[in-house]
Amino acid sequence: MIQIGRRNFLTMTAGLGLGASVLRPILAGSVAEAAPATTPKRLVIIGTANGLTFSLRRDSTLGADSGIAADIPHPGLRPIFEGLRAYKDELLIVDGLYNPYNATLHGNGFAATNLVQPPFLQEAIPASVSFDRFMAGKLGQGVAFDSINLACIPHHIDSMSRSSDGLQRVFPAEASPSRAYQNIFGKVASGGLSERDLERESNLFKFLQDDAKRLKGRLGAVENQKLDQIVESMAALDARVRTYAATSAQCSSLASITGEYKDSYMSISDALIEAQLAIAANAIICGQTRVASLNFGSSDGQISHYGFTALKHRDSHHKYCHDSQRLAEGKAPEIDGDTNPEAAQTEIHSYIFGKIGKLWGMLKQAPEGNGSVADNTILMVINDGGGEHHNGSGFLPLVLLGTAGRLKSGRYVSLSAPERKGTTSTADVFVTVANALGVDIKSFGTAATCKGPIALLEA
Amino acid sequence: MRLPSYQALGRSSGPDFWSGRTSRLHLCGVLESQTRLKDVLKKFPVAGLVFAVLAACGSACTGVISGNSSEPGGQLGATPAEAAKAAKAAEAAKAAGLTEANATAASGKLASRRLRKLTPDQLANSLRSLGFDIPGVATRLTLTISGTGTNFSSYAARQDMSVPHASELNSIMSEVASNAVAEGGVAASCVLSATASDCARDFVRSFGRKAFRRPLADEEQARYVGYYEQEQAKDGAKRALESLVRAILLSPHFLFLPELGSVADSSQPVAPMTSYEVAAAIAFLLTDAPPDAILSAAADAGELVNSAQRVVHVSRLIESPATAGGLLRFVAELFRYPGAAESTSRDPLLFPGYNAEQAQAYVAETDAFVREILYREDATVKTLFTAPFVMATTRTARTYGTSDSVGTEPLRVAAPAGQRSGMLTQPSWLTAYGRTADANVVGRGKFVLTRLLCQTIPPPPPNVNAMVPAPDGTATLRQRLEQHSSSPACSPCHQLMDPLGLAFENFDAIGGFRATELNQAIDASGSVVDATGLAYRYQNGLELSAQLAEAPAVKDCLARQAYAYFQGQTPDEFLGSYSEFSSRFQANGGQIRQLVVDLLSADAAFYRRNE
Question: Residue B477 CA to chain centroid, in angstroms?
Fold first, then answer.
């Protein structure tokens, strides 16, 4: 591996395709490169939508536990994984999973990360704590942002978040790279905070927590939950302020990242995705967070009727999803025949996995200790689609990159046969991933449907 | 033949999202529903006996048919413990001075002591009233809170204080505080004051009064002054004042409307809200902004605990559209027409030129239309559903086919004859219930059924493709929908929704009028019978609108929706207690403004119970 300094990495990411307009060095300053005594573990979760037709992800001749160390496309795997070719040794595809709480039509995407029964099946309302927020609580101590949550479509247009802190408590996603940059890195750019600044902010947040606590005695249990949320959020902001200065020194050479969502029929632009990838990667690399989520889909289980500008398709991801499934089932496609829906579906997923490969590449190029940041990171690609209506995406193909030294990768693993009748819950993978990242849990979500870590995936 | 009322079929046991309680959710028992459906259709062979199906499906298809429970004081399903608690609450309510009728209504049905979060618009208006006009505040805050789904923004149970939202609030209030201490700012005079602490004390008293919409208690004032002095010792007056302003504006007493009541003794089951709490509630519900000077003075005088006084102030505020932003918001959230501007995803080949600006123009026009109905017309349900005019601009004149000279501001023009009349033919509503290429027939039908008739439709059963087949150039939407709805898995529920949605088949995905589809004349006819036995037979959406306008079930539902909005409660929280308002609403011909006056002058609206 070519060793480059972290500061140089941050500057040269422009050369990785992010574009000079996206990244330009604006700050000077020394960058700490020494790895901490205990190397922190990180988690990146990428959410996609609309399911993934079985025939597009693997050939039925592929065995239930197959090595994929051969070049991708592997004889049994489809071209959609081409963008991960360079990382095939770190790739672990887990197929045949089942999410028992997200099996209805368009689903409630929060069920994909909550793993408990959502209160409303068809509305983007969380029932519990999402996996990323749970892991944020475990991995996020001592950094400015216990997790960050990014999206490609604004929250108010199409609830693009799968993150939650409990029943009805959505952890919103940020779809504006400009705002995300300002929030996550902005104070570094404006010169940082003095000791007195830190103390003042901390005093204020403590005063506000006290405000909320004083009201608690006058309200019942349900209303007190609101006050608890205030106290928790103010405490989180207090912690952020106190850790920001220490962690943000790593980010001092990061160039400004800008970009805004523009609503239209084909609305997710390449520039916006690239900017969000840069924010996620840099927030991880320079230590602003250890848990990052990036959503290509929405929490009601689909990218409604949106599409990717770079692909210049006639119709949306959602429509091609349905039609490629219809083709797979021997039915005629529904939409006008100006595009082969299966080819379009392949292009869409190839495009998404290409972007994921790019993000992983950024983590690979960021040095840490004797290796890279990627060595201590697991990237997980989940799909939040509903039941068979969306290509059986209740039976998730879940893609993992990285091992954190604890996963057995370079493989395709099918956990059930026949393929469409899963018996292993995605919760079991979450537990496996948590354990690999040093978070020792035996169950996640509803205990009755979680069997615990999957030995087959462990090194 | 009169159909059985759906209430008789059983009360909803659906989940109560906003209250945080999750109860049983019954899913469709398809086979059972098919059997019952056949039985019902044998008895009622008229095509489109939607509510016959609904009645049958009420227990069979779903088990979730909503008890919209118009039974006075109805407490279906109350446990003995709940009944005992309710009786105790009723007794206490009487003792607290509630009328007997309201005390009955209050029994167990009052909202608990609570905190109601200000909406982004309300928060922006509050800041404006304090002298801070920060551009884009409402939008910034909207991006960090969860959507309301099908509920109203006034629901008190919302929990929106996530870390990102708190961070955004902190960022906004930092800007505000910086403005406050800048030259000419509200706290600027204290920056250079020789007696900084005295000045700060006065500032806390006056600024706090406006921000918290009530005078601060001595203890509260001392706490804020103490905080200021602590910061001032290290930072000097200017920075300390900034911190003080942030502390006040990030307090739950500013960000929320506390409804704690005047009785500190929590052993009392019921307590009236204070005059200041009542003033704030009325102001934000009606005007979307804090109390004006007159209402504040009335709160100072303690007048608002008196129902007759409330009528005076509510009537004054509701008299003008300039002070009735909350009423307009209720109508907008009820019909959900602003949804047109939230997503402008339309197929550019089918709808060339359609864009966000046109969608926003549609919404602005319907805002203007509602203002016309409420303030230049008679403000009745009938007029809302049948008014034969539209509010056009140059951006949308083509949609209406009008040749009248219009400008950039919505101008009242006669609606094209036989094409449009009333709310359900407004392009904004039709677009909000449109898809990328098609009209959203099912969505439109579901809207009428659930929002205007207060029925409950369950989500599609697992693993059923509920998508209407896409256009194929040969079958009309009605034909495609019929293919789709003939599926045994789909028909029980779609027969409830589709005939109502098809009534608006003359309108495409962006609300444009069309007489034909695929060179065939549009068939928008249908017939349904509602749960009260009233038959609707119509040739198109205009005729359906006219019949809905006269229907008692619609007025009952709108009274229920208004009660939900103005009480900030979910239907499960107020079962039964809206019925007196519904009766009066029916009796006065569906006068919407009078309904709101009734709701906001009732005692029960301003008492809170202890949990």
Answer: 31
* Interface contact B161, partner A, CB < 8 A: yes
The string of pLDDT tens digits covering residues B425-481 is 999 999 999 887 888 898 999 999 999 999 888 766 655 666 676 666 778 888 888
Q: Which helix (H) or strand (E) holds B538?
A: strand B535-538
Q: Which residues of B touch A196 (CB under 8 A)?
A: 234-235
Render pLDDT for A324-360 as a digit per residue (tens, 0 to 9).
Answer: 777 777 777 766 555 688 888 889 989 999 999 999 9
| Integer Cα distance of B581 and A337 in angstroms | 55
Tell me how far the alpha carbon of residue A87 is from its chain's centroid: 18
CA distance linking residue B128 with residue B122, whole number of Å: 10
Please tell me if residue A374 touches chain B, with a CB cutoff of 8 Å: no
Is B174 near chain A, with CB under 8 Å? no
A154 interfaces chain B, CB cutoff of 8 Å: yes
Question: What's B286-321 look like in SS3?
Answer: HHCCCCCHHHHHHHHCCHHHCHHHHHHHHHHHHCCH
Report the candidate in A136, A158, A205, A148 with the shortest Cα–Cα distance to residue A182: A148
Report the alpha-carbon distance of residue B265 to residue A180 in Å, rounded: 46
Q: Which residues of B touch A127 (CB under 8 A)?
A: 22
Whether the CB of A206 is below 8 Å from some CB of chain B: the reply is no
A155 and B144 in contact by Cβ < 8 A?
A: yes
Interface of B with A in 325-384 (CB under 8 A): 342-348, 355-356
Check: CB of residue A267 under 8 Å from CB of residue A307. yes
A289: DSSP letter: B
Q: Indicate if the alpha-carbon torsion angle B134, B364, A174, B330 is positive or negative.
A: positive
Token pair, residue B440, equals 């959203």
- Chain A residues in contact with B112 (beta carbon < 8 A): 219-220, 222-223
- Rounded CA gap, A114 and A130, in Å? 4
Stated as kind and residue range, the H or E segment containing B529 is strand B526-529
DSSP string over A188-207: HHTT---HHHHHHHHHHHHH
Give per-10-residue mean pLDDT for chain A (459 aa). 38 34 29 57 91 73 72 74 91 85 69 83 81 96 92 74 88 91 75 80 95 89 90 92 71 79 76 95 93 83 69 80 75 66 87 96 94 96 69 66 92 69 82 97 93 92
Distance between CA atoms of A141 and A132, rounded to whole angstroms? Answer: 14
Q: Which residue has the tokens 């302020």?
A: A241
**Nearest CB to A208 within list B19, B247, B342:** B247
